[in-house]
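Appendix C reproduces, verbatim, an entry submitted by the partner laboratory led by Prof. M.T., so that reviewers can inspect both the input and the predicted structure.
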Amino acid sequence: MAGIKEIAKITGLSLATVSRVFNDSTLVSPKTKEKVLKAAQELDYQPNIMAAALRSGKSKIIGVIVPEVNNFFFSGIINGIEKMVSDSGYNIIIAQSHESQEKENEALNSFLKLKVEGILLSISKETSDLSQIQKIIKSKLPIVFFDRVPNLKNINSVMLDDYMGAFMATNHLLDQQCKHLIHIVGDTKVSIFKERQKGFNDAIAKRNDKNLKGESITLSSNLKEDIGLIKKLLKDKPNIDGIFAYGDEIGLHVLNLLKELNIQVPKQIKLIGFGNADFSNLTQPKISTIDQECTQMGEQAASILLKTLKDKSASLKTKVLSPRLVVRDSTQ
C-alpha cells in the first residue's frame, strides 16, 4: 500500500511537507496541497487518521452514543448530527448502549482511548451511576447531552419539552370529546417518560371535569406480555375512548390489537402516539402523534458541540425544543 514516502517521491517534496498537508497545516500553500492530494488520489493513498491523531493530539473525531440505532427517533437524531458535522472537518463514530449502563461506559472508555475531541450522548435507561460521566466533564472534554439528559448542573444539553408534548396529546383527545383516557406509560426511571406521565395527568386535572377519567398503565419490557395487559384492560373497561401511547411503536401495536378486537378507530377509541415515526403516516388509519423534532435535536446538539470545540470558553447551553401536534385519522 502506498504511503507518504511514495507521494514525496512523485511530487519531489519532503516528507515533512507531505505530512503537513495531511495534518491540514496552514504552513502549506494551496498549490502544494493540490499537488500532494492529486498524487495521493493517483496512488489511492488513505491517511492513517489514528496515527495522525497520536502525532498531533487532535483526532478530529466526535463520538456519538445512542441507546439504539435502529430506533426511528435516534436514527433521525444521527441524521441531524451528520448533517451539521459533514462540512466541519470532523468525523463521527457511533456507538450503541443497548439501554445498558455497562455498555455505555465501555463506549465512553473506547472514545477516550481513541482521543475523540467531543462526545454527544443520550444516556441509557439503566444509567444511574454518573461517576464516569462526571469524570469526563471534569476532564474538560466537551460533551453535549441530548434527549435523555442526566440530572447534573452546568452541562450542555438539548431536549424536547416532553411534558408539553404529553399535555398537547392529552388535550387533543379531550378536545375530541374523549371521557375515559388511558396513558400507556414508558419506563418512568427515564426522565422523559416521567415528564410525559405528568403532562397526561395535568391535562386531565386542569379540565376540572368530574366526568373525565384518566388512568395509566405501565408496561414491562416483554411485548407479548404488554399486549396481553392492554387487551385485558380494554375488555375490563369497555368505556375507554381515548388512548395516549408513550411512543409510536407501541401505538402501532395498540392499533393492531384494536383491529383484532374489532374496535373501530377513531369511532370507538381515539389513539395518539408520540414521535412522528415514518410508519405512523402509513397505517390504516394514520396515527396522530407528537413530532419530537429529532433531526433538529441532532443538529442543535452537534451545533453546540462544534461551537464548544471552536471556543472552549463558550457559555453552557440548555436548549429545549417545542413539540408539535400532528393530527391524523386515528383521532378525527
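Residues 162-292+327-331 form a domain with the Rossmann fold fold (CATH 3.40.50.2300). Additional entries are available on request from the coordinating office.
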